[in-house]
Amino acid sequence: MRLLEERIRKDGIVKSGNVLKVDSFLNHQMDVTLFNEMGKEFKRLFADRPVNKILTIEASGIGIACIVAQHFNVPVVFAKKTQSINIDGEVYTSRIESFTHKRSYDVIVSKKYISKDDRILIIDDFLANGCAVNGLIEMIQSAGATVEGVGIAIEKGQQSGGKLLRDQGIRVASLAIIDSINDETGEIGFKEY
Ligand code: 5GP
User: Mind listing the pLDDT tens digit for each residue in 55-88?
Assistant: First the structure.
């Protein structure tokens, strides 16, 4: 999506450790007009899928997911980060390793909000090694629900997450795919379409 690529080139900041900061329009301050264009594009890309729910993960996926959900006219559920796993069986849980924070944490979704009839589109801000998305997929599978696809704002194509998901036959649509980040020059390379 050209609009998003242009914005990343203009306002994205390269940090050491292969991290791209997009705090001025996506991860801290949010450009809702841009999100709306992203929502339209996800709707176009998944128009043939019978999505009835969007699943994302706390915190930075929530803003994007809510705007995307308006285009699908479906509810959003977000996986909550938690310190203590609830063992009373009321929640689906998954352990996720954070790429940016280099530590693991547990996420939960109440069993009330995912059931076997759900056809779910996963939305997240970044796809790097795929841990976050895989954790969400695990919970969807535990519920016996269907993963209709994965919609990502920025995929870091130089990391393995996208390939791992596509190799499993999951439809992944990323609005911008980065294939190189140079933390000395600040240069960002995009995959050509
Ligand atoms: P993964 O689980 O695919 O390795 O990483 C995805 C998660 O890590 C995303 O939800 C995102 O919050 C965070 N993340 C991964 N790479 C980056 C990055 O370069 N910049 C930012 N801002 N977040 C990232």
Answer: 999 999 999 999 999 999 999 999 999 876 666 6
Indicate which atom in ligand 1 lies nearest the CA of residue 161. Answer: 3
User: Using CA of residue 53, residue 58, residue 131, residue 142, what is the dihedral sign?
Assistant: negative
- What is the band of 141 on the pLDDT scale with cuts at 50, 70, 90? very high
151-180 exposure pattern, b = at least 16 Cβ within 10 A, e = fewer: bbbbbbbebebbebbeeeebbbbbbbbbee
> In this structure, what token pair is assigned to residue 18?
């292969």
Ligand 1 pocket mutation pick from 57, 60, 126, 180 by most atoms within 8 angstroms of CB: 126
| Distance between Cα 126 and ligand 1 center (Å) | 5
Q: Whose alpha carbon is nearest atom 11 of ligand 1? A: 126
Rounded CA-CA distance 84/88 in Å is 12
The pTM of this model reads 0.96
| Measured CA distances, 149 to 42, 48, 86, 192 (Å) | 10, 11, 28, 22
